[in-house]
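Re: that chain you flagged

S.,

Sorry for the slow reply, it's been a week of failed gels. I finally had a moment to sit down with the sequence you sent. For the record, here it is as I used it:
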Amino acid sequence: MHNLKCKNGSYKGTIAECMFALTLRYPLLPIYMSCSKCLWVIGKYLTSAQRFFMMQHWHSFDVVEYNDGKLCLYEVKVRNEYQKKKNLKPKMTLASYQMYEEAGKAGFEVKVAFVEFLDNWEYNVEVVDLTADSCYVDKPKKYDRV
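Prediction finished late last night. Pasting the structure tokens below so you have them in one place:
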């Protein structure tokens, strides 16, 4: 029997994004949907600046939710029991954090969803507003674009 919690790689993140999307009413997963298809559906509710932002950063979001005329962008983070006990904040690159700040200025709601895998396919989800306190913004590395 394989244990997903012990695996490395982005599988946990992709599965967490899909499981989190199940908790939303109208989720859009950019990894599985093109930006043009999304804009065809919800573009009439966006300003031209928001449309341009969506086209420019479409694959940078984990989950997008359209609900009651508002668009919310989610960054999904997997949290394990050790991180929860120690109250450790998940890492986020400076570029990602700046992109989400820009999204907030453009009029989008920006949130972080923490997904914790439990036994027997159960999971917990905690959603908070994205602030400098909700994530640890990692310092730029040598080859990062700043």
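What I noticed first: The first strand starts at residue 27 and ends at 28.

Talk soon,
D.
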